[in-house]
Each structure stands twice: as C-alpha cells, then as structure tokens.
Design goal:
- It contains seven helices and twelve strands.
- By secondary structure, the chain is α+β, with helices and mostly antiparallel strands.
- Strands 2, 3, 4, 5, 8, 9 and 10 form a seven-stranded mixed β-sheet that branches.
- The chain has a single domain, classed as Nucleoside Triphosphate Pyrophosphohydrolase.
- The longest helix has 19 residues, at 99-117.
Length: 278
C-alpha cells in the first residue's frame, strides 16, 4: 500500500464486517481507548500490533493496536491517588470529553495496554519489577477481573503515568454495524526495560513491525486491518522516530471521524466525511 490514503469509497470485504439489520436503529457507541505502542530501533520506528482471536465478535482476526472499552471502574476517582503526569482535565479538549470521561479513557488506555501487551505505562518501576513474574501474575489477575488497576499500582508502588500518552486519533464505528465504539487512539512510548507480549486470549499473536511493513503485509492479504488502523499506520509510516511522532502530533486537534458504509452488489464501500459521496 502506498503512503497516500486509500481512494474515497475504497472497498471492504463483506466477510470482515457484521452488519445490523436494516430496520434496527443504530447501536450506541461505547467509549474505548486504543494505544499505538511505539519503540525506536536501528531500522526505524516500530509499533506493536496484536492479531485478535478469530472467535471474537468485534474485528475477529484483525490486526489492531492493544485496546478496549472503558469500564466503570476506569472512572473511579480513587485512581487519582495513583496518578502522575498531566491531570485528566488536560486531556478534555483533544479527547472531546469531560474530566470524568477523560480520566476513564486514560485509565482504560493504561489498563488495556497492560492486559493485552504486558506493558505498564507507569512511573519508572523499582528495581526488579519490570518483566517480573509477579508483575505478569498481576496482569493475569487484572485481565481475569480478580484485581483492579489501583491494587496493581498499590502493590508495585507505581503511579499511572498519564505523561506517557498522547492523543492521536478519534474514530467512531459506522452506524451500520451492530457493535459500535467511540475510540480514542493514543501514542505511547514503551517504557525502558519493559517488553511487549500478547495475552494469548483476546489476542492470538503480537508483533513489532515498522508501520510501512505492516501496511505492505495488509496489501498482500497476509493480514486484515480495519480502516482506522490503516489510516493511523499510514501517518506513523511518515515518522522516523518516537520523538518525531510525538513532536509532530503534540497539541493538535483530534476531530472525531464517523465513516459511512455503502452497500452494493460489488461489496461494501467506505467513505470518510471529507470524501465526495459521503
């Protein structure tokens, strides 16, 4: 795939989407966070991608960034006792959310990155914590719902580091799909000393890839990606380092993008608000 965006109205496989019945009203879009976890390598910028299990109802089999829906517990104000970096209200404008939801979105980004990639976006861990067996055990317990993020931070003596995250994009699932998410995309630099690994449950595999290589793999049909992943990878492919990606996207407006799907005999076509025919 080239560095330019797909042509307006580019086609999607109907097998890749589950569509709501035509006589049903649009489903509400649940708030969610996803994180493009980045690292620098001698070959250039790399991003961590996971392949979702084929048995999952939403985007089964797709290559995506770690992420998921905001849980009620993510908005618990008690998490402010374990908070470092910019306050939640500092995220309100780029996330198009009030202070409470901004807090939930940031917490969900940290929690999901830990659950799905094994990377804890927190203040520098004390010696012995990074990649320790106990930290992995806490990840398993958190994923299973047997503990919460506040308890993980309490035991490790760490604080959620909101400064690791930078708002990057905002996509809303088209109204024609039965399961919808209002998803904020964040950039995050992998903390020094931590290593990303997929969870083996929601994600069947995980890998570090240069954005351009990931796009080429998608073009060759080796993996399936939803349009938001394609578009964000295309932007990331233009950056040579983590610092360049952060500098280029710092402080910018992050408008919500609600695509429209059009159905025809030749399949499904995908339109952005800026495309002719939207």
């Amino acid at each position: 795939m080239s560095d330019s965006p797909p042509e307006p109205g580019f086609s999607l496989s109907s097998a890749s989407l589950r569509l709501r019945a035509a006589d049903e009203p649009p489903a509400p879009a649940r708030h969610a966070s996803t994180v493009a976890l980045l690292r620098d390598t001698p070959e250039g910028l790399e991003v961590f991608l996971v392949r979702r299990g084929t048995n999952l109802n939403f985007a089964g089999g797709a290559m995506v960034y770690p992420g998921g829906a905001v849980d009620e517990a993510d908005r618990d104000p008690a998490l402010l006792e374990h908070w470092a970096g910019p306050a939640p209200e500092a995220f309100s404008r780029p996330l198009l959310a009030d202070e409470e939801m901004s807090r939930g979105l940031v917490v969900a980004a940290v929690r999901e990155t830990f659950e799905e990639a094994g990377v804890l976006l927190a203040t520098a861990p004390a010696a012995g914590w990074a990649n320790s067996e106990r930290l992995e055990a806490l990840r398993v317990e958190l994923r299973a719902g047997r503990t919460g993020l506040p308890q993980v931070l309490e035991e490790t003596g760490l604080a959620l580091d909101a400064g690791c995250l930078q708002p990057f994009a905002h996509w809303i699932t088209p109204e024609s799909e039965p399961r919808r998410f209002d998803t904020r995309f964040f950039l995050a630099k992998t903390p020094e000393g931590q290593h990303a690994t997929h969870d083996g449950e929601e994600s069947a595999s995980g890998t570090w890839m240069r954005p351009a290589d990931a796009l080429e793999s998608s073009r060759r049909g080796e993996c399936f990606m939803l349009p938001p992943t394609v578009f964000t990878l295309q932007e990331l492919a233009g950056y040579s380092s983590v610092s360049q990606a952060f500098q280029a996207t710092a402080g910018r407006d992050v408008p919500a993008i609600l695509p429209r799907l059009e159905y025809g005999e030749d399949g499904i076509r995908f339109f952005l608000p800026t495309d002719p025919g939207y």
